[in-house]
Write a structure and sequence with these properties.
Blueprint (H helix, E strand, L loop, with lengths): L2 E4 L1 H4 L7 E2 L5 H11 L4 H4 L10 E5 L2 E2 L15 E6 L5
Parallel strand pairs: 1-5
Antiparallel strand pairs: 1-2, 3-4, 3-5
Length: 89
């Protein structure tokens, strides 16, 4: 099953453990994680269910191409990494 990991800065905001979940698309995998950790959803997705502007999602080291529907394919051995951009000065 795919593994979903989150950056440490997300873990400081809410529970964001590494999860092994079933799914064939990024959407299916993230929905499985959000079912376990609902508070995490609002940090990753906007009100329309798209990836937030300052969040980047990688599948096996490559940035996903579909930030709206999250339809990028995921293999059983894939690693999904969710990174929230940091800003400041």
């Amino acid at each position: 099953m795919p593994i979903v990991q989150f950056t440490a800065n997300l873990a400081r905001q809410t529970a964001a453990p590494t999860c092994e979940v079933a799914g064939e698309t990024v959407r299916e995998c993230l929905d499985a994680v959000f079912a376990l950790h609902p508070a995490l959803r609002s940090y990753v997705l906007d009100d329309q269910g798209a990836v937030r502007k300052h969040v980047v999602v990688f599948v096996d080291g490559t940035v996903i191409s579909d930030r709206m529907r999250l339809s990028d394919a995921v293999r059983p051995a894939s690693e999904i990494f969710v990174m929230q951009a940091l800003s400041g000065g």
